[in-house]
């Protein structure tokens, strides 16, 4: 630690007083160190001790300088180090003569291959314990921060899902957090909110990501075929069954994930077999006797109130609780207004690339999109943007390029917000020189809404 030329020069003298190192007074540097430091030459004579030696051991430095270490502390570890040439590190010591507990690092000092002395650095045992407690506390803080970061930080597949609204981010973070758990998940939310997108991201963030992700829309498959579609069938199981039979979706997904969309539309008799798959991980094909074992994760989705369906005996309560280990509600688009413009611009970029056009949304279109109710959610917004891009033959997409449904709202957003609705209509009529079609476009309302307002306020045309 201190085996520099300056130290070596003074080890042979009676008193160790190095002058400087890198333009700093070395004695001052050593004196400012909080740990106790004591240096001996090759004969074991103490040539230096810093002020912390006195602070820790309560022994004045001038009482030990020039004395042999064995006379000061006969069992000092530095004496062993001088004999063996091997360092002794982090060793707790009880000094009998001083009744002091310390932790020492004793290291030999060499000039070439020859030992010319040694240095011991030591701390009070109580200080070491304080350091340990502080380190333990620091590690706990770091662990909590890491857990929070892991909880808040989205896994990569979720980072590609567009949305910054706090309500939506909460759903994303929950889905990301449970992706690795392997638990069954129930995704709830209106049609078009992106339940399949969530399910796919959960699968890609799980340890099943390299295996199959099998999607089944329970409402799209006829009730008479759903059981054989899910569980497969044996040859001769029913009229029209293929020769050799057919494996079902659950077997196809073995080792992976099954996404059951519109789970509320699953017939009761099929629900019973699904419950067995969740509980026992086994089933038989339709018309078969052999039990088939599968390792699958189930992610179910619904836009229905399953609890109400349980009350009406339309959905099994035991299956509901098996599916609903973790429920994630995906908010409707109207509940996340901060995301509407963001998503609209994303779809604009996507569809302009698809149709080889260069278009942007007008500010009027953006405002209209923000104030629409979006009963079809993100899926409907994508449809509206694609519609506008296909019809637009100008550089900027205007409200006239959007589907007529966008105008089916009663509130007029244009003009000075301090004006009342009647005055806004009158202003629009005057600005358009009473061209009704132009006034409707400027106001951003449909023909039906326009004439309803004209009648309501008894405005003369």
Automatic annotation (TrEMBL):
Keywords: ATP-binding, DNA-binding, Nucleotide-binding, Transcription, Transcription regulation. Residues 161-390 form the Sigma-54 factor interaction domain. One of its GO terms (biological process) is regulation of DNA-templated transcription. Residues 26-67 form the PAS domain. It comes from the Bacteria. The keyword Flavoprotein does not apply. GO terms for molecular function: ATP binding; sequence-specific DNA binding. It holds the Pfam family AAA_lid_14. The keyword DNA-binding applies. InterPro entries: AAA+_ATPase, AAA_lid_NorR, Homeodomain-like_sf, HTH_Fis, P-loop_NTPase, PAS, PAS-like_dom_sf, PAS_fold. This is Sigma 54-interacting transcriptional regulator.
């Amino acid at each position: 630690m201190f085996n520099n030329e300056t130290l070596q020069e003074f080890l042979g003298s009676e008193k160790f007083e190095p002058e400087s190192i890198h333009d700093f007074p070395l004695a001052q540097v050593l004196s400012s160190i909080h740990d106790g430091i004591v240096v001996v030459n090759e004969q074991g004579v103490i040539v230096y001790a810093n002020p912390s030696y006195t602070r820790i051991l309560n022994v004045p430095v001038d009482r030990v300088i020039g004395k042999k270490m064995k006379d000061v502390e006969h069992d000092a570890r530095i004496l062993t180090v001088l004999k063996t040439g091997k360092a002794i590190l982090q060793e707790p010591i009880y000094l009998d003569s001083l009744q002091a507990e310390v932790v020492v690092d004793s290291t030999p000092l060499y000039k070439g291959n020859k030992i010319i002395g040694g240095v011991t650095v030591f701390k009070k045992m109580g200080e070491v314990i304080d350091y340990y407690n502080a380190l333990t506390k620091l590690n706990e803080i770091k662990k909590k921060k890491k857990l929070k970061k892991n909880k808040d930080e989205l896994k990569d597949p979720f980072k590609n899902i567009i949305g910054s609204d706090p309500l939506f981010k909460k759903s994303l973070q929950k889905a990301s957090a449970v992706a690795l758990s392997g638990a069954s998940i129930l995704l709830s939310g209106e049609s078009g909110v992106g339940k399949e997108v969530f399910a796919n991201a959960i699968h890609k963030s799980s340890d099943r990501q390299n295996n199959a992700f099998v999607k089944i829309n329970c409402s799209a498959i006829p009730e008479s075929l759903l059981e054989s579609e899910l569980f497969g069938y044996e040859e001769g199981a029913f009229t029209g069954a293929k020769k050799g039979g057919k494996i079902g979706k659950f077997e196809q997904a073995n080792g992976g994930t099954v996404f059951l969309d519109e789970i509320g539309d699953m017939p009761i008799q099929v629900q019973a077999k699904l419950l067995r798959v969740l509980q026992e991980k086994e089933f038989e094909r339709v018309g078969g006797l052999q039990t088939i074992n599968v390792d699958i994760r189930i992610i179910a989705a619904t836009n229905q109130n399953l609890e109400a369906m349980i009350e009406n005996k339309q959905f099994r309560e035991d299956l509901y609780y098996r599916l609903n280990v973790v429920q994630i509600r995906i908010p409707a688009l109207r509940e996340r207004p901060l995301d509407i413009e963001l998503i609209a611009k994303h779809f604009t970029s996507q569809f302009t690339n698809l149709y080889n056009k260069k278009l942007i949304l007008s500010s009027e279109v953006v405002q209209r999109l923000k104030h629409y109710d979006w009963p079809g959610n993100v899926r409907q917004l994508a449809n509206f943007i694609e519609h506008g891009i296909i019809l637009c033959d100008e550089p900027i997409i205007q409200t006239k390029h959007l589907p007529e449904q966008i105008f089916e709202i009663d509130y007029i957003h244009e003009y000075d917000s301090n004006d009342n609705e009647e005055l806004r209509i009158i202003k629009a009529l005057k600005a358009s020189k009473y061209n009704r079609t132009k006034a409707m476009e400027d106001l951003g309302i449909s023909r039906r809404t326009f004439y309803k307002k004209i009648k309501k306020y008894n405005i003369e045309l």
